[in-house]
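Discussion board: Methods & Data

I've been asked by a reviewer to show the raw model output for two of the constructs in my manuscript, not just the figures. I'm not sure how much to include, so I'm pasting the format here to get opinions. Each protein appears as its amino acid sequence followed by a line of discrete structure tokens. Is this the kind of thing reviewers expect to see in a supplement, or should I convert it first? Here is construct A:
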Amino acid sequence: MKHGTTEQGSPKILLIYTGGTIGMIEDPLTGALRAFDFTYLLDQIPELQRFGFEISSIQFDPPIDSSAITLDIWLQLASTIEEHYNTYDGFVVLHGTDTMAYTASALSFLLEGLDKPVIFTGSQLPIGRLRTDGKENLITAVQIAAERTPEGLPMVPEVCIYFDTHLLRANRTIKCSADLFEAFASYNYPSLANAGIHINYQEMYIHRTSQDAQKKLRVSKTMDPNVVVLRLFPGIPQEVVQTILAIPSLHGVILETYGSGNATTEPWFLDLLAQAIKRGIIIVNVTQCLSGTVDMSRYDTGIRLGQIGVISGADMTTECALTKLMFLLGKGLCYEEIAQQMQRPICGELTLTPNTTTHK
């Protein structure tokens, strides 16, 4: 369905409503939140018509609670953008906050060769509430998706999350609060823009594909779900690690370690990891800390992980490392290719440092 008309040459923006709090209303009998028709959401924000953009919308039917998001929905969302890519100048994806960082990270990899804005947003309160944050989030996300440089190029040609005045690179973002309006943060990479009276873009941080490297959009059609996140904790039982690593269909592990990539050096632990790696399982080391990077050359524990073949995840978030590994495994690459690409930035998801080493 389409809402609004525009003069010739004005930006064309596609809103994709997957679900989430922003489009919900409160059931008067139970007080529970339930999804409402997307037309209701647009009716609550007549200000969108004042932009003069051509704004069209697509709604997932039924709307998806973000806690029910699956890899199939990620692929469906990527295919939806691919289908409409040549028609629109920018895309705004409305999504529940709980798994927004996962979905947005996944899209940053699935949409290879992207040179148009894909801006994720949502809200902590439904759009119909008096104090909702959804109205400002949506209005500003639409404006960012339509923004152009003086040369006429998209201002932010990458997948981002806009929330509570901050525009963040999607694959650098985590959800940091369940009840504050400032629900997302990017601890290892600066904001791409901040919205106050004006939207101030930090152009030096925006990822742009060079003119020589520009290619047509390519959308991957497969991801490998056979990946787990293993978060270490003091006293983790051997049986737990052994059971997880023995899953027959397992292809990859995101290992959440301490500090700058440290873990227990108990012989049984290192032996189990080494055996899994020999079976072809990719193990990627990311830190449990909110900020900072994995440096497996700094302490003996990290060095020993590197010696058995654990791959450094550098400063990637867990959400990013997980979706990137699913993406690479889905491409059918060999072990060495995946190991190398996990340590190289594809779309600005990690920072190379002097201590970043490539798996050999």
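Construct B, same format:
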Amino acid sequence: MNEAVQSRFQILALSGGGFRGLYTAKLLADFEDEISAPIATRFDLIAGTSIGGIIALALALEVPASRIVALLTEYGEEIFKRRWSLAGIWRAPFSSRRLADLLSGSEMFGARVLGACRHRAVIPAINYSTGRPQIFKTPHHINFKRDHKFRIVDIAMATSAAPAYFSRYTFNNNQFVDGGLYANAPGLLAVHEAQYSLLRSAAEIHVMAIGTMSSKFTVDPRRNREGGTYDWGGINPSNMPKRLFGLSISVQEALSDFMLAHLLPGRYVLVDDDLTDQRSRAVGLDKADHAAREVLLGAASERSKICIGSRDVEPYLRHLAPPATFFYGENANTPSCRVASITARVRATAPSR
């Protein structure tokens, strides 16, 4: 089930954050320019949630990060174009149709399925039909037999269906909601995947997490403290779920950072920038105008320059990940006889019910 033991197993974890993912994409584009290769060739596993999930899927296909930068820069305002929604009461203020159309283009995902990915990826979402978390995975384990058949566009739309911003996304007769509600910073999920599906020890694992210049949501002490709609959202009721979603993903970022630093001492790097008071006014999950683009692209350019010269980041860019083993799909590289043998061993060692 596991590949040959190696001394270093690298994970790239990409956070969600709506249009702020332009920051992530620009950082990665600069890294690719520096190494003159797809960034996915440096990582053994890529995890991404929401916009981070869309970027992760693109990287796993070896779509250049610069192409994602161009897509968000050119079409961001179309993706986040407000529609009539009765202040968010009747329906979400943004339609996901334009994003789906863009991701379905031949230069992005087209009609390709998850099994077309050249690198391992894990993408969290919420299956609202079952009420359970769902993690879409490339077929890098003998038991991962179904996800590789799903269209990448469907997985991308499922992980990025942010509540209060976009409508739920339906495919395979199930409704999905943004995975950011429970795993906006997916580094811990990826570490678990490396340990339990790929049998890597904690000592081998190194994680680079890239944030999205997330705002820290804090209380205004002058506001109503009664916990009602006005307290959380002000006079516009649609602001309440948005603020709760923002608080949730902000706290998750902080918790994941804290736990990964403890779990992987000296083997974890977070690449992100704090928003100043002035810049935070220009940036948001649904802000895609010129000011937002300027802040995100400018901050990413400065941060990438620092990272490329950093002793902490340099080993991540130097590492060459060996080809991944895939058991199913168009990139399957495991002989059928070995698959049968492994399947038999798994069944023999499975606990009885």
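Answer (T.O., handling editor elsewhere):
This is acceptable in a supplement if you add a one-line summary per construct. For B, something like: Residues 1-5 have pLDDT under 50 and may be disordered.
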